[in-house]
Predict the 3D structure of the following.
Amino acid sequence: MVCPSNNPYRPIRARVEQVINETGNIKTFVFKPEEPIPFLAGQFMLVTFPGIGECAFTPSSDPKVIETIEFTIMKAGSVTAKIHELQPGEFVGLRGPYGQPYPLKAYHGKDVYVIGGGVGLAPLRALLFALNHEIDQLNKVVVRFGARSPQDICYKGVINSWGERKKTNLLITVDSTGPGWTGHVGLVTTILDENDIDVKNAVAVVCGPPIMMKFANKRLLDLGFAPKDIYLSMEKNMSCGIGKCFHCNIGKYFVCQDGPVFTWEQLKDIPEPW
Amino acid sequence: MTEYLLTTENLHNLVRQLIAEATIYAPINTAGRKYLEIVSPNNIDRIDLDGFRTVDTFKTAVFKISEQVARYFGQEEAAPIKKQVFLGIRACDLEGLSIGDRVFLEGDITDPFYKRLRENLLLISADCNDCGPTCFCTVVKGNPYPTRFFDLNLSPVDEGFIVEAKSEPGRALVDKYREYFNSPSDYMTREKNNNRREIIKKIANVNAAFHLRLDLTQTHKANLENKIWKTLTKDCVECSACNFACPSCTCFLLLDGAAGPAANSRHKVWDACLKNGYSEVAGGANSRPRLYERLQNRYHCKFDYSFERLGRFTCVGCGRCIDGCAGNIDMRKVFVELERQAPLTAKLE
């Protein structure tokens, strides 16, 4: 048995407080760690399902709340399948937070164009909490979110209220419509409009599946965004989370250390970084 | 710089003393080839510091093939650790070790398991006085004799070894066993320097067909989007021998134990960037789904990205990847082809 102090590979135990069904394959888990784990919006953590393994997720809760921490997780592989079986009272492990957060100070005085796709809304939810805390320093926050269908929209009970926050505007689109849907139908790129924001004084933040990020990024460049003003949350296979194991490289960068938030300026010379 | 003479007999005497206080890894001659073994009284006489590097790499003793790094969530106790000595480690393996040091010990977070082993490691290196057909340290700016990163270095001469003490632990060892270390004559130092010149010439001859005109980082950058990689990969069978044999490859995966004594334990296990699942995420997305993309990434990792991250190549020219390759891919031939392609593809800066 070996364990030097400050062991970065050892998770902190956290109790499952609540499980919220978001969609058919997405749940939000409220964890209470045995010691508080402060994080900044955009940073990620590794969630351990005991005996099975761990996966990287960005918390979806308000960074100002430190007693509990929430993750919105899609069932996609072996670890997330086990996580989806969790019930309140059971335990997981948490490591982190790791990586670079959204540089919120750089957004002060600007329009913030927040673009999400699918479960990519999870880290953006934490960001939107953080932006709302600093809303007086921002020009405005414009949220554009796409889901596959009305059933696939997360945070159903509260999402519309985000658009009612001070200086915040929200529009949701679905790829294909469903019963009772009266909103926009089409990919998220179809609702990105130059009239939404003052491109010359704005930053864009994108999080979603790789294919969505690729086309949203292209659309933003077409709208006139400078590469340095587009912030992308990159996802790669991650193991250690601390820049040692090399799994998550995109060219010379490690997503776990240099990211997960990158500007397009950093990535634009790398062939197919998605 | 103070030098000493250590006869072969006194080297064996020294090793007999060190066996009591440390685990010693040394090249042991087995049927004409040198493999790393733990030294015991039974194999001292087969320690062979002649020639060049061992078949296997020393990294295994500090970056273990599999190592338990956590047990959650109960209390954990640190196990006692025994001092290790790497005897006869060559310049290439020292460079490889120094790259591991940078990966595991630098940055905001260090790897405490590597650190513990590294802090209890004494490096007694040796000059090469021969080279193998796949040795190419000089092609990647290295030397066949250690100039840094060692505690003591042994340069073979007729009477035994000329010893150079580089570090405080190295000097302390000499002081502790002073009776084994004598003063060398000037002609012995001349012999050492002459041997070094000769081995440089020999490696140059072995690698005469791989003379490179361009900087390897620039050559790789120029070929970043060149489909020549498909051709260069055609004989690769994804066995990953190159990854595992490499003294500077440090990729690993964290694996959790599910049942029995391993339940809720976490192991740091060697991984290989050539494997298809290496970059795959849940749901099936893979940033390098094609083998040629993964082989190319391995080369860029060593000659392009490493230069940007660490300011150096992370290939040390030991040639083990060539020896181990099931497809007979020779890194040096890849260099030559990339250099031939470079002017045809992107502009060199």
Q: What stands out?
A: Chain A has two domains: 12-98, 104-233. Chain A touches chain B through 48 residues (CB under 8 Å). Chain A has a mean pLDDT of 95.
